[in-house]
Amino acid sequence: MIPGPFSYHRPATVADAVKLLSNLGDEARPLAGGHSLVPMMKLRLATPEHLVDLHGIAGLKGIRRDGNTIVIGAMATQHELLASDEIGRSLPILDETALLIADPQVRYRGTIGGNLANGDPGNDMPALMMTLGASYRLEGTSGAREVAASEFYQGAYFTALEPGELLTSVAIPVPAAGHGYAYEKLKRKVGDYATAAAAVVLTMAGGKVATCKIGLTNLSETPLLAEDAAKAVIGTSLDPATLKKAAAAAEAIMSPAADARGPVEYRKHVGGIMVMRALQRAAGRAS
Amino acid sequence: MNDMTPTREQREAKLEGMGCKRKRVEDIRFTQGKGNYVDDVKLPGMLHGDFVRSPHAHARVKKIDDTEALKVPGVLAVITAETLKTVNLAWMPTLAGDVQMVLADGKVLFQNQEVAFVVATDRYAADDGINKVVVEYEPLPPLIDPFKAMAPDAPVLREDLAGKTTGAHGPRKHHNHIFEWTVGDKDLTDAAFRKAEVTIKEMISYHRTHPSPLETCQCVCSFDKIKGELTIWGTFQAPHVIRTVVSLIAKLPEQKIHVISPDIGGGFGNKVGAYPGYICAAVASIVTGKPVKWVEDRIENLTATSFARDYHMTTEIASTKEGKVTGLRVHVLADHGAFDACADPSKWPAGFFNIVTGSYDFPTAHLSVDGIYTNKAPGGVAYRCSFRVTEAAYCIERAMDILAQKLGMDPAELRLKNFIKPEQFPYHSALGWEYDSGDYATAMRKAMETVKYAELRKEQAALREAFKRGETREIMGVGVSFFTEIVGAGPSKNCDILGIAMFDSCEIRLHPTGAGIARMGTKSQGQGHETTWAQIIATEIGIPADNIMVEEGNTDTAPYGLGTYGSRSTPVAGAAIAMAARKIKAKAQMIAAYKLEVHEDDLEWDIDGFRVKGLPEKTMSMKDICWAAYNSVPPGMEPGLEAVSYYDPPNMTYPFGAYICVMNIDVDTGVYKVRRFYALDDCGTRINPMIIEGQVHGGLTEAFAIAMGQEIRYDADGNVVTGSFMDFFMPTAVETPHWETDFTVTPSPHHPIGAKGVGESPNVGGVPAFSNAVNDAFSFLGSTHIQMPHDYWRNWKAAKDLGAVA
């Protein structure tokens, strides 16, 4: 539980940070909240020679509304999401999800950028961002680009980030007024990753589902958008048969690993149940 | 009498003696981060040691190359079994009569076994060094399943035992067999089963788990080459035993070994035994002449230092049709891992598992236990229980429920029908114990009335009907557990550790101003001894508890004791305190008689001093007697006021309790909700009700963890798959149920103050209550027994296997 030696860098600007990351190459890792990276370093499963601490970069902080988009700086902490009135008004599902991440101590330190960029299938925010249709701003020495959350995740810990690139902010379109939402997460205890979790954002019209997006956490190597499951509920009043159909469609794309949370069969089964429960709870909240 | 004279109640209250909810005096430092733990010990020039550990469960060690490690800046030495052989310490004796490798000698026998010890100037350099030690292994087939251990073709684990057909506890039947232990009358029991109207048989497993104290095992060893003295600060539950063991195996004179247990962050049995880290740190200090610190991390603690349980108990009960039990037959397959490092009294290879007849009047019983080796970490310690008592309680409490189910009887009613009756005490059990006292039916009925047991059964019946009709996906269980503990090891006639009788001790020295110090052979790890020991003294000799300092853990100053585990502190050391106090009181009475100019027999005790019989205004307080003890004792009497007592208990004590757990389970996810948990404990005389309540809360929380998910699990290759708090279930306040506590008081007739001990009861009684609740919930679907732990996925699987989930 003792990390190996490393050098520590604390740049003041994004430009300096990406320059450092680019120059130092594969042996450098950006340090945000550190709640994934530092434990891995203590186990020596990660042995970066350089840590580029992003806490000195003022430009990576903050949460703001830009028209119909909420822009969150990568270094905003989970706690800051919970404390933000803007998030509470426009994106209450972020609050609901952040509250299910670890515990208050971790949320004071853990950042949204770290949660999104690390590519850990157990992280809760990536599936949520896919569900919300968010996009990430990636900055490197050759400039900035926008990548949709749904295009970002390629495998466990593999993302669209190029060497030397940094995820600097996330832009989330504000969901329609009156939308319904829910994040259902089954976990063994506080601080655990999801055994299975489902995010739902939907709108209702005349008692029937008008639009729907469903995201899945920790049920594959990457977060998933359950598109067939979402399609299955459009135009329905979420009757029991439809819910079962949606769950089955979602389960069809799940490929969780067996671990101490349970065998594959169980994790898929409860994945389907999370989808059904999230759909029902979201519909109950929609107006 | 003027208004300023304190009333009797005020005098009593000022003492804060037995029965007072005195606040824990040690918490003043603990709650402010001012405790002094082993890792707080920092000595000039101190070095740090850490282990290279085996990635394999079973492998031959072909070569250990430390060339690159020794080039790491700060690394001073790499110690291997070859190094230790030069001082004859490559192997060490275990408390169970086996031997254990200190460092891998030719092969490794479990994952994370200690292979080499790297000594460096700081912890970082030590870890850097570890990563540079190259060990060449030749993997061997691992033996993980205990039921395959004694197959004819099972791998040979312990090559050092080749040809040894006899072990510390008798004949060995197989190369992976450690011992067979049998108790009871086999013929009589077999006859009872032949005649039985009803029998049940079930293989009840109690899975491997771990005590996992918040503070891991650690030590600092400092050898003074000039004086030839070794000082060890360590997380020791039994510091004197450690001193004796070190003296015996390191061949150092015992007076030159100083063992100090400072504040300890929880033990739960994990800190009773001796570990390779202690030996290696001591050797490293002797070799380098510098202090050496060894601190285990969490993964090492969970995977390498002593586990608990891992008992597989094939259990049979014979009974009449009316539910009167007539016989009990139990066979245990005990998985000890690679070495038998159980921390039991030496003559008890399966601890006090023969308490397995529980609270019931079995006319006959027979027990046999086979201990076996597997490629798992050694241990088998008493995790917050007396030796193997929680296994026994789980075994009988689960089996009684299975019998009730077969008979179609209510499980509480079956228990009431078979309890040992109050007039049967002292009760001689079929497996050889003499139960000291108990009133089981009263406790059971109080529990049932408090939780409105009959109404719960009605609610359960209605919910089951609703479930069958498809109106709910929840099932409900009511778990009943009635346990009898056996604690306070123990009488010298049957309890010793390495030949040292399991007495305990207290030395009380009173100072002239009416204050004093009590030094003890026990060692608190959070139990609150500094608070409760002073309360016993306060009541016994009328000195306020606040004026008594309690000191434990320094073998140079404390009288020899066997330490704190197995709920033995109050039954044994608590008695020693009372006996030492009574010696002081006898001398104090002589001094008071002299000062009051009356005969001793004319004095009577009154709260905080003596008064002359019939002349209540003629008194002498203990405070004044203390002063007199240092300036005007009777002619011929030595001055001073102190006493020491070594207490050899005449018997164990037998605390008991009735626990009821109400739980609902969602069959679709396996998620459970503990709706109610009621715990009635009878621990005899209650010294500090607040501390008892805290002990019960803590023990129940551990019981909850164990029953509902906490396990050390290995995969088929022998890799530990639950080696960190991510997967090893350590509940937080969020998961932990609300606890309701209650009590009855049945004092122990043979203990000086009637106390029985309580710290471990809730773990012993709690596990069966939870497991019985889960099993009770599923029983109407056709199951008789579902193995622990009952975590979410296993509950779902149970529901699925029973056809309740598609």
Automatic annotation (TrEMBL), chain A:
SMART domains given in the database record: CO_deh_flav_C
Alphabetical keyword list: FAD, Flavoprotein, Oxidoreductase
Record's keyword annotation contains Flavoprotein: yes
Residues that span the membrane, as ranges: none
Sequence ranges assigned to domain FAD-binding PCMH-type in this UniProt record: 1-177
Source organism of this protein record: Bradyrhizobium lablabi
PROSITE patterns: FAD_PCMH
Keyword field contains Oxidoreductase: yes
InterPro entries assigned: CO_DH_flav_C, CO_DH_flav_C_dom_sf, Diverse_Substr_Oxidored, FAD-bd_PCMH, FAD-bd_PCMH-like_sf, FAD-bd_PCMH_sub1, FAD-bd_PCMH_sub2, Mopterin_DH_FAD-bd
Entry protein name: Carbon monoxide dehydrogenase
PANTHER family in UniProt: XANTHINE DEHYDROGENASE SUBUNIT C-RELATED
GO MF term set: FAD binding; oxidoreductase activity
TrEMBL record, chain B:
Domain of life: Bacteria
One function term, GO molecular function aspect: iron ion binding
Aldehyde oxidase/xanthine dehydrogenase a/b hammerhead domain span: 32-141
Record-listed E.C. numbers: 1.2.5.3
Reaction catalysed by this enzyme: CO + a quinone + H2O = a quinol + CO2
Swiss-Prot/TrEMBL cofactor(s): Cu(+); Mo-molybdopterin cytosine dinucleotide
InterPro entries: Ald_Oxase/Xan_DH_a/b (IPR000674), Ald_Oxase/Xan_DH_a/b_sf (IPR036856), Ald_Oxase/xanthine_DH-like (IPR016208), AldOxase/xan_DH_MoCoBD1 (IPR008274), AldOxase/xan_DH_MoCoBD2 (IPR046867), AldOxase/xan_DH_Mopterin-bd_sf (IPR037165), CO_Mo_DH_lsu (IPR012780)
UniProt keyword annotations, A-Z: Copper, Metal-binding, Molybdenum, Oxidoreductase
SMART domains with a match to the protein in the record: Ald_Xan_dh_C
NCBIfam families: CO_dehy_Mo_lg
PANTHER family listed in its UniProt record: ALDEHYDE OXIDASE 1-RELATED, XANTHINE DEHYDROGENASE
Known partners and oligomeric status: Dimer of heterotrimers. Each heterotrimer consists of a large, a medium and a small subunit.
Known function: Catalyzes the oxidation of carbon monoxide to carbon dioxide.
Name this polypeptide is given: Carbon monoxide dehydrogenase large chain
Organism expressing this protein natively: Bradyrhizobium lablabi
